[in-house]
């Protein structure tokens, strides 16, 4: 099996794992404070990642790597989990998953800004059209009730794209799983005090599904998924394997319907398909 095939397999596994993040977060925030959830998931994953780094005797990152690692930490360890947890207090996971159709575009945008790549005119045409589809959907579904949640999801997509692009660049020299592990370790001094400050007043009042949701996003979404994802990007190429992000909204919608019994309307499916089509077109004209 060549590296390209391994990259597709690892990237696909990572996307499937990430697809469960929003439904699991939705379950958890029904009974857990969003700040506690964000800090707890990062702290648990940081401890596990730190143990891996120690067990496998990984060298410390260089000074030049610290800045990018902080960007990764702010994007995918703190920013995306916190913003989505806050958003899911206002919107359903099925609604929020529609915005994930913009993740490949967000990643590409920061790839241009950080990597200095030149994109063709067709790329930007599809990019603007995809954004217009998502914004139009948000406006048509009751902006007064979900504006805050929609804005939080858009912000989450932006910071996640930045974290993906920066992490993908850094994984070429530092290694895929090492990037997320070191980013988690760097965030631990901030996350642990926040866990203590936002600790639930009564653990008995938190039911098992909320704890299972926390466990999933801590172990799988925050650590294991990134191990497969960054490894896939390194093996198969960022541009090629990054296409697999387009499948994430579909997996997420199915999980939201199966696990949370949420209604997935035809409008959600149509908008998701339009967003995926636009992002795919933008990728086609990227070079």
Automatic annotation (TrEMBL):
Localization annotation: Membrane
Record InterPro entries: AA-Vitamin_Transporters, EamA_dom, EmrE-like
Its main localization is membrane
Q: How the protein sits in the membrane?
A: Multi-pass membrane protein
One Pfam family in the UniProt entry:
EamA
Parts of the chain that traverse the membrane: 7-29, 35-56, 68-88, 94-113, 125-145, 151-167, 179-199, 211-230, 237-260, 266-286
| EamA domain segment(s) | 7-134, 149-279
Organism's domain of life? Bacteria
Q: Which UniProt keywords apply?
A: Membrane, Transmembrane, Transmembrane helix
SUPFAM superfamilies reported for this sequence:
Multidrug resistance efflux transporter EmrE
Q: Which family does it belong to?
A: Belongs to the EamA transporter family.
> What is this protein called in UniProt?
DMT family transporter
What species is given as this protein's source? Stenotrophomonas bentonitica
């Amino acid at each position: 099996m060549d590296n390209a095939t391994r990259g597709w397999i690892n990237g696909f596994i990572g996307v499937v794992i990430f697809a469960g993040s929003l439904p699991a977060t939705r379950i958890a925030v029904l009974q857990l404070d969003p700040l506690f959830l964000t800090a707890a998931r990062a702290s648990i994953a940081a401890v596990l990642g730190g143990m891996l780094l120690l067990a496998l005797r990984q060298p410390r990152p260089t000074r030049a790597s610290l800045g990018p690692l902080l960007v990764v930490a702010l994007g995918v360890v703190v920013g995306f989990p916190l913003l989505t947890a806050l958003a899911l207090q206002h919107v359903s996971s099925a609604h929020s998953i529609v915005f994930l159709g913009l993740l490949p575009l967000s990643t590409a945008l920061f790839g241009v800004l950080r990597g200095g790549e030149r994109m063709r005119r067709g790329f930007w045409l599809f990019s603007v059209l995809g954004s217009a589809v998502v914004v139009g959907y948000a406006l048509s579904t009751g902006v007064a009730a979900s504006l805050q949640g929609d804005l939080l999801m858009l912000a989450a997509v932006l910071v996640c794209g930045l974290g993906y692009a920066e992490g993908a660049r850094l994984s070429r020299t530092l290694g895929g799983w090492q990037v997320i592990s070191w980013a988690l370790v760097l965030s631990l001094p901030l996350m642990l005090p926040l866990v203590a400050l936002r600790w639930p007043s009564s653990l008995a009042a938190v039911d098992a599904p909320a704890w299972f949701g926390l466990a999933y996003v801590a172990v799988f979404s925050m650590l294991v998924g990134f191990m497969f994802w960054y490894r896939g990007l390194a093996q198969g190429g960022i541009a090629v394997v990054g296409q697999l992000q387009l499948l994430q909204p579909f997996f997420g919608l199915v999980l939201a319907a199966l696990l949370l019994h949420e209604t997935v309307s035809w409008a959600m499916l149509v908008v998701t398909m339009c967003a995926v089509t636009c992002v795919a077109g933008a990728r086609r004209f990227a070079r």
